[in-house]
Write a structure and sequence with these properties.
- The strands form 13 sheets. Strands 15, 16, 19, 25, 26, 28, 29 and 30 form an eight-stranded mixed β-sheet that branches. Strands 17, 18, 20, 21 and 22 form a five-stranded antiparallel β-sheet that branches. Strands 40, 41, 43, 44 and 45 form a five-stranded antiparallel β-sheet that branches.
- The N and C termini lie far apart (about 100 Å).
- By secondary structure, the chain is mostly beta strands.
- The protein has six domains: about 1-105, Immunoglobulins (Immunoglobulin-like); about 115-190, Immunoglobulin-like (Sandwich); about 200-285, Sandwich (Immunoglobulin-like), CATH 2.60.40; about 290-365, Immunoglobulins (Immunoglobulin-like); about 370-545, Sandwich (Immunoglobulin-like); about 555-635, Immunoglobulin-like (Sandwich).
- It contains two helices and 52 strands.
- This is Gliding motility-associated C-terminal domain-containing protein.
- It comes from Dyadobacter psychrophilus.
- Keywords: Signal.
- InterPro entries: Ig-like_fold, PKD_dom_sf, T9SS_type_B.
């Protein structure tokens, strides 16, 4: 049965939304009661159906005459004041039925009072004539000195009261009242009273700003309860009142539909309830114009008319100050730091003591006769298989675009080939390299957003570091476009901290190690450049203090191209002496060149398969004499 009722309720809601909702209250057939039809917000009601044996019944507690929103009820709460229609909608076996009733919910929110103290115990209380005040019939004012006054709708909004005792600070209570209605009163609001008269001089303009849409915004400090007129003029004589306020605190006031090319004078005129009057100092808005001429943006602004309190002008580009002018007569500036196609937004801010006046923003798109070449760029080794190319593209920024083209060649070659074109990117890692074997050279060029192309730069070449015994050598072809100012050798030991060794402009360095040094080091060279802050790193060379010599345990001189020669392997020897002997101790091969090995023959004939002995003596790179012997197999 429960499932059936839920289904019927869903069907009822569906049909009610599809029917023409207007006139549902007139269809009749329904009936219900409400426990109360008037009251104070928030107000909760309970509805009771009086139709016998309904299949289903629901209610829309805030029926708007259009699409009903049916809920089962029976309890509904109204948070806001208003006149509400309660719609009943239900179903009998014979069809649907409807009924409507109205509910009046009265305002209970607090009213908004302000006051001015006029000296002694005299004050003027002002009621803000808003929708909340209009809802009440009367306002009960309990002054806090034992006296009570009733304000009636239609009476003047300003009420005078005199306190006999000014030694304390009373608190007035104000409560909205209803006469002959279902709600007696709203919530009370308290208003602490002090007897210090407001200083009209405290009402002051803090800033003037002309916005791009023609809105003149005046930010000012107001005093609660003091009426202030905000006025403007185009000639400094005839002022137009743009608005009046009596609220306190720092606040903005906008004057719409103004001309951004016009200078306006603005001022505040204040009058309190005690008949005190005051005009603020006059401040002027600023204007700014801009144009592009031969790759430069030329800005001109209005001269601030009052030199008495003038401090400076700040010129802003894209929200950042690019120049400050302390002379009131400096009203033009040429911005050369722009690139073709870049769009910049400028504003000028005049500072008058602690008040600022800001112009509307002006956008300028730079047009350039000829683009600037790239002056700051570098290439650096990032590993055995990676070279990174970096560049500072002139004029690159959030408002400009460019294409950066990179060309490449092996060091010494004259033919460069394009490897990539980047869009709005100034850094690229080239993976197609072997940095331990070769130096690579790169050229870069760019095309700006105006379609102007800069010729390719001078080649920049990676630093190739090589080792000959204890001497490090490196290539010095230009690794940094602005030129290298010095080189450093970076030495990292296996158990000691990294050490940076300055070598000025030398292209070689002798490794300084001894028997107490680490067993193994990594070396890398760094080129430095002051302009642009670029640096370039070489490949890494590994150095072992004790030279190792490797002799294989077998070789097979059968002419197949694999292991046909018995060779000793090492690259850190100063001298080398190597001999091979047969099982009877006879020397059958001798060499003093590590690059010359035994081919497995004796006097031109193949030596027999079997075991042989080698002996060698060598001097390593730190002048240690080492003797070593061993055996190996000759296989065929």
């Amino acid at each position: 049965m429960r499932l059936t009722l839920l289904s019927l309720f869903s069907i009822l809601i569906f049909f009610s939304k599809t029917l023409q909702a207007q006139g549902l209250c007139d269809r009749g057939g329904g009936g219900f009661t409400i426990d109360k039809t008037e009251g104070c917000a928030p107000m909760t009601i309970r509805v009771t159906n009086t139709v016998p044996n309904p299949i289903l019944v629901g209610y829309d507690a805030n029926f708007n005459g259009r699409s009903p929103q049916i809920a089962p009820g029976p309890v509904f709460t109204y948070s806001l004041p208003g006149l509400y229609t309660v719609l009943q909608q239900g179903a009998l076996s014979s069809g649907q039925f409807y009924a409507c009733k109205t509910v009046q919910v009265f305002e209970t929110r607090v009213i908004t009072p302000q006051y001015s103290s006029c000296g002694g115990g005299k004050i003027f209380l002002s009621l803000i004539d808003d929708a909340i005040l209009k809802a009440y019939d009367e306002v009960k004012i309990e002054w806090g000195d034992g006296k009570t006054e009733i304000w009636k709708k239609g009476s003047p909004l300003v009420i005078e009261h005199n306190y006999a005792d000014v030694s304390s600070s009373p608190t007035a209570l104000l409560t909205g009242l209803y006469v002959g209605k279902g709600c007696a009163e709203g919530r009370a609001t308290s208003l602490p009273i002090t007897f210090q008269q407001a200083q009209l001089n405290d009402i002051a303009i803090k800033s003037v700003e002309m916005r791009g849409d023609g809105t003149l915004r005046i930010n000012y400090q107001g005093i609660s309860g003091v009426y202030t007129d905000i006025s403007y003029s185009t000639n400094g004589s005839n002022y137009t009142v743009a608005g009046r306020r009596s609220s306190g605190g720092l606040q903005p006031f906008d004057v719409k539909n103004m001309a951004t090319s016009q200078v306006y004078q603005v001022k505040l005129s204040s009058e309190d309830l005690c008949s005190g009057k005051n005009d603020s100092p006059v401040y002027s808005s600023m204007t700014l114009t801009g144009r592009s001429e031969d790759g430069q943006n030329i800005l001109t602004w209005s001269k601030y008319p009052d030199a008495a309190d003038f401090t400076s002008y700040d010129l802003l580009r894209d929200g950042t100050v690019i120049k400050t002018f302390t002379s009131i007569n400096d009203i033009t500036y040429t911005d050369e730091d722009v690139q073709c196609g870049s769009f910049s937004e400028y504003q000028v801010v005049a500072k008058i003591k602690d008040v600022t006046s800001t112009s509307a923003p002006v956008g300028v798109k730079a047009e350039i006769a000829s683009p600037k070449p790239i002056k700051d760029a570098a290439v650096t080794v990032d590993g055995d298989r990676s070279v990174t190319i970096k560049a500072n593209v002139p004029g690159a920024g959030p408002n400009s675009t460019y294409d950066l083209t990179i060309e490449k060649a092996e060091a010494g070659a004259t033919l460069f080939k394009k490897i990539i074109t980047l869009f709005n990117q100034s850094e690229y890692s080239d993976p197609d390299v072997k940095t331990n074997e070769l130096s690579y050279c790169y050229k870069i060029s760019y095309t700006n957003s105006c379609g102007q192309k800069v010729p390719s730069s001078e080649p920049m070449c990676t630093i190739l570091l090589t080792k000959n015994l204890t001497t490090l050598n490196w290539t010095t072809e230009l690794p940094i476009l602005a030129g290298a100012s010095s080189y450093d050798v970076i030495q990292a030991g296996s158990s000691t901290a990294e050490e940076v060794i300055p070598v000025q402009m030398n292209s070689n360095y002798t490794i300084k190690v001894n028997a107490q040094s680490d067993l193994e080091y990594n070396f890398q060279v760094r080129a430095n450049s002051t302009p642009g802050g670029f640096e370039s790193l070489s490949n890494i060379i590994n150095y072992k203090r004790s030279a190792g010599v490797f002799v294989p345990q077998a070789f097979s001189p059968n002419g197949d191209g694999y292991n046909d020669i018995l060779e000793a392997k090492s690259n850190q020897l100063q001298s080398f002496n190597f001999s091979v002997m047969n099982r009877w101790g006879e020397v059958i091969f001798h060499s003093e060149d590590i690059a010359t090995g035994w081919d497995g023959t004796i006097n031109g004939a193949n030596a027999p398969v079997g075991s042989y002995v080698y002996k060698m003596t060598f001097v390593d790179d730190i002048n240690q004499t080492v003797e070593k012997s061993g055996t190996f197999m000759l296989l065929r």
